[in-house]
Specification:
Mean pLDDT: 83
Distance between the termini: 34 Å
Shape: globular
Radius of gyration: 19 Å
CATH superfamily: CNF1/YfiH-like putative cysteine hydrolases
Helix content: 10-25%
Strand content: 15-25%
CATH topology: CNF1/YfiH-like putative cysteine hydrolases
Number of domains: 1
CATH architecture: 4-Layer Sandwich
Number of helices: 7
Low-confidence stretches: 1-23, 38-42, 59-84
């Protein structure tokens, strides 16, 4: 396995869109530039693929009237909640399995679906949205395995898998995280996309390679985005976790730093980068925010135990 080429690992610029859904819940993913490969033939990937990540939010939610009017579930809370009265799921939890109320989570998911639909119908010429029916999001029952599902139509029930692939429009692929690494993939044409749940167990089970093998695109034409997860200064693991990777390839040794306790600090970003580059993916964006250290912005299961889930979502334009 070749060493990671740091020249092609570029910082993702996750910039907030003008506040149309919430004050701080949505951040858009800006993909790394691919113009150097074929400057005249390939427009920016952002023109072909829409991707975002959610956060836990830091203030009361604000929604456009057109979005609210389309939603039949519980209306969103419009008031700032005092710090000592907040639940562990405030403000924008998307996980149905964590103990939050079904009504609140369903409402958040509907709002997110409507937001994506609105963004996809923006006319680049005048920037005015034409609101249509919500785009459908495929949610998963993530089991920390390496199963990859190819999505041709959205199921109303969560699919058991830790990665998804689609070539269809009007389908959004979602990965939920609260410390694990979200990975989004697109080919340079924007005609095939994938989303991967990159916890250490799926990564150890080679979920990246499994996903790339099921994609019709050549790995050399794939662009990857690695999102926020528990960082290299906070993710302490036992020697058995390190051994799982080292036994596969000694190159992973660089992703682990031994501590005086005999445990190791692990770097999920480095592990994923090594696996991607070994499969032929060379354009990789890396947004290395630490969820454990930034619980003001992100949910962290390891730090909080009872907490919500964020989503990283990708769909074709």
């Amino acid at each position: 396995m070749p060493k990671t080429n740091t020249n092609v690992i570029k910082k993702a610029q996750a910039t907030a869109e003008p506040l149309q859904l919430t004050n701080s819940v949505i951040e858009l993913v800006n993909w790394p530039s691919i113009s150097s490969r074929s400057p005249s033939a390939l427009p920016p990937i952002n023109e072909k693929v829409f991707a975002l990540q959610t956060t836990r939010g830091t203030s009361s939610l604000v929604f456009p009237p057109k979005v609210i009017s389309k939603i039949s579930t519980v209306a969103p809370c419009q008031n700032v909640v005092p710090e000592d009265k907040k639940s562990p799921f405030d403000f924008f939890n998307l996980g149905l399995h964590v103990g939050d109320t079904i009504e609140k989570v369903t409402n958040n998911r509907n709002l997110l679906s409507n937001y994506i639909s609105q963004q996809l119908t923006i006319n680049p010429a005048n920037k005015r949205p034409a609101f249509n029916e919500p785009i459908k999001i495929q949610w998963l029952d993530q089991v920390h395995g390496n199963q990859v599902a190819e999505i041709t139509s959205v199921s109303s029930k969560a699919i058991t898998a830790d990665a998804t692939i689609t070539r269809q429009k009007n389908i959004a692929l979602a990965i939920m995280t609260a410390d694990c690494l979200p990975i989004l993939l697109s080919n340079t044409e924007g005609s095939e996309i994938a989303a991967i749940h990159g916890g250490w167990r799926p990564l150890a089970a080679n979920i990246i390679e499994q996903t790339l093998d099921k994609m019709a695109s050549d790995s050399g034409d794939i662009i990857a985005w690695l999102g926020p997860c528990i960082g290299k200064e906070a993710f302490e693991v036992g020697s058995e976790v390190r051994d799982t990777f080292i036994n596969q390839n000694k190159v992973f040794d660089g992703a682990f730093v031994e501590q005086k306790s005999g445990k190791y600090l692990a770097d999920l970003h480095v592990i994923a980068q090594l696996q991607l580059t070994s499969c032929g993916v060379s354009v990789i964006a890396n947004l290395a925010d630490c969820t454990y250290q930034r619980t003001d912005k992100y949910y962290s299961y390891r730090k909080e135990q009872v907490t919500g889930r964020m989503a990283s979502i990708i769909c074709r334009r």
